[in-house]
Design a protein that fits this description.
Layout: H1 2-26, H2 28-41, H3 46-49, H4 74-89, E1 106-112, E2 117-123, H5 127-130, E3 134-136, E4 148-152, E5 170-175, E6 178-191, E7 205-212, E8 222-233
Parallel strand pairs: 2-3, 4-7
Antiparallel strand pairs: 1-2, 1-5, 3-4, 5-6, 6-8, 7-8
Length: 234
Amino acid sequence: MNKKRISWLMTIAAVAMITFGLWFSGTQAATFAKGYLLYKADSVAAEDFAPKLQTTNAEVSLPEAEEAESIMDPVEEQEKGEEAAEEIAQLPKDIDYPSDPQIGDLMGELIIPKLGASLPIIHGTDEDELEQGVGHYAGSVLPGQSDNSVLSGHRDTVFRELGKVGKGDEFIVHTADGTFTYRVRQVRIVDEDDRTVIVPKPRATLTVSTCYPFDFVGYAPERYILVADLVSGS
């Protein structure tokens, strides 16, 4: 009798594990895999282009934001970062991005030199767009224009390493209007319903947002915000 009961319990446990595995593979794992492919498919080779800029996250007092260790002299570090950014900006582009993007359009490319990453920018921030790459908030201006251009992405897909990016680091954006380089001047942690993220700005600004904390299980209650100023454009 005991053997039959044990066998019955093992069968139930096996069925439960298989059911859980199917559910997980169809949700969390699938999401992670999709984000990994998005992050890597068009990524810039880190050993060739990733700059080693001096990280200044400590000034912002964000205990959960990752800090990169300096492995060279700060001056040499800055020079290598600038050289790498220039090399990335000169990479040939064979994609004709739309000058007047519609929701769902591939409208540009976001390069993050600190991470050696290249990510597609999709016009719109609904789930359909965020599943394809970095979303551009349709209510904001296009990158390179005066005012606030807002980009958002999932922390467990395209922006899973965004915590390594901090004050002084750069974003490079390619669109139909040209190539634009922004430098981060502020790191903020805000509530999910904080509308100051999308308010107009007096100068050309890029605001990059993702959910926070990065290791939070489930729906994260806050947002990790990087505010960057335009420093050059072509």
